[in-house]
Amino acid sequence: MARHVRVDRAICQGHGLCFFTSEKLFALDEADGKANVLVDPLPDDLHDDALDAVDACPEQAITVVEDDD
Amino acid sequence: MAMDEIDFDHHAPDFNERKYALYREMRGKCPVAHSPAHDGYWLLSRYDEVFEVARNDRVFSSAREVVVPPTNVGRLIPLQSDPPELERYRSLLIPFFAPGNLKRLEPFIDDIVDRSIDGFIERGEADVVTELANPVPSSTTMALLGLDPADWRVFADPIHAGSYSRPGTPENDAATRDIQAFSERIVAEVDARIAAPRDDMISALLAADYRGVATTREEVIDLVRMVIFGGMDTVMAAFSNIFVALGQRPDLRDRLVADRGLIPKAVEEFLRYDAPVQGFARTVTEDTEVGGQPIAEGETVFMLWASANRDAAVFGDDAEELVLDRTPNRHMTFGIGAHRCLGSTLARIELRIVLEQVLERLPDFTVALDGIVEADTIGIVFGRRKVPITFTPGRRRQAG
């Protein structure tokens, strides 16, 4: 089982709050300001960071999903 | 036609003192309410409806006006635009408000905060609005654009005068004329850079294109006007509200003095608790429904950020209280959706730096609560004209 952070780029408006929550997990695209996920799958030590980013995103564009890989 | 016709006018003289009680009542009884004021407008007071409307730019247009009643201060973009232009305008501005670019501004902000506090630290008293909250964001906005920071009053004074006076009054009319006059200064600054580009934001905007679409001179003028309007007034207002909140709650001031690591979270909470912008309007482009209430094409819908910020359904039973370390804190103070404030990161940096320095240099400040001078209206921006403080005098950091 692996966890992944997903940013829905159709919803993301580039406010950058995920980036400030965790610079290890997110980078802001230079062209459109939207968030890119830097680490996949999500390592255990960044799981709390990811959940904080889910809570921080004003647009509710971030989710943490699990799969069976 | 309206189910809930309410007595609501965000420019009314007594609105400031009534606002939060009014919002509470509206969230409970009539979350989608209609007021006959200002030729009629719908008021959205709950988080969910505000969230829904703010993210639907197709049905809820920003192209006409986002304040009620409309002002006559020149076009502000991207604020007054819809997709697809909105996306282009936003993309043009985004690089300048990216964390990396703003990092370069921090030494400037440190310095202007230092010097502003130096200006009154030896006196033991000050009006923090005039002497700190006003010069810091205004000078910073000038520096960001590449304008001479020393000239900040040319823009800041008329904008504040316009925000804090009620529409239709002589003071407001005069402010509108002064704002129209400073637009000529913006035009001159833009034209000077068309003739001779410099290494600054205005020149970069003139040279910028979006997917092959060039930026016109008129668009750059309107973008610069937007940055000036967005950067000066709202942050000053946020500062004034923070000082008042800390004046009312010295225990919170002491907590922040003792734990300055709490400042970033506290900034978010202050922004949530007293939003400097009560709300923005949208114009409905087709017959629709919000929260089960039919709303017709052409009508105006007003999203109350300040009320959504206190919605217990989102923030819990203590939504009306200041909780410095509130987490999560997904407040609406910067708006939401594609129009959400582009300067939010810069605003946060300014608020953090000022709070850090104030709590370090005048940790025992108290606010003379009976000396606070309120604005005549908070319908566009909720801030204070004057917030007098006293404190144990300290030393200047820089030579006078």
Please describe what this structure looks like.
The complex is a heterodimer of chains A (69) and B (400). Chain A is an alpha+beta fold. Helix content of chain A is 22%, strand content 26%. A two-stranded antiparallel ribbon of chain A has the order 1-4. With 400 residues, chain B is of the alpha+beta class. Chain B has a single domain (15-390), classed as Cytochrome p450 (Orthogonal Bundle). Chain B is 48% helix and 10% strand. Chain B has a five-stranded mixed sheet with strand order 1-2-10-7-3. A three-stranded antiparallel sheet of chain B has the order 4-14-11. In chain B, helix 5 (106-121) runs antiparallel to helix 7, helix 8 (152-164) packs antiparallel against helix 9 and helix 9 crosses helix 11 (217-248). The model of chain B has no long low-confidence stretch (mean pLDDT 96). Chain A binds chain B through residues 13-16, 19-20, 28, 30-33, 52, 55-60, and chain B through 55, 91, 94-95, 97-99, 327-328, 330, 332, 334, 336-338, 340, 344-345.
How many alpha or pi helices of chain B? 16
User: What is the beta-strand fraction of chain A?
Assistant: 25-35%
| CATH secondary-structure class of chain B | Mainly Alpha
Query: Using only CA atoms, what is the Rg of chain A?
Result: 11 Å
How helical, in percent, are the residues of chain B? Answer: 40-55%
Output the CATH topology of chain B: Cytochrome p450
What is the overall pLDDT average of chain A? 94
Function (chain B): Cytochromes P450 are a group of heme-thiolate monooxygenases. They oxidize a variety of structurally unrelated compounds, including steroids, fatty acids, and xenobiotics.
GO molecular function (chain B): heme binding; iron ion binding; monooxygenase activity; oxidoreductase activity, acting on paired donors, with incorporation or reduction of molecular oxygen
Keywords (chain B): Heme, Iron, Metal-binding, Monooxygenase, Oxidoreductase
Protein name (chain B): Cytochrome P450
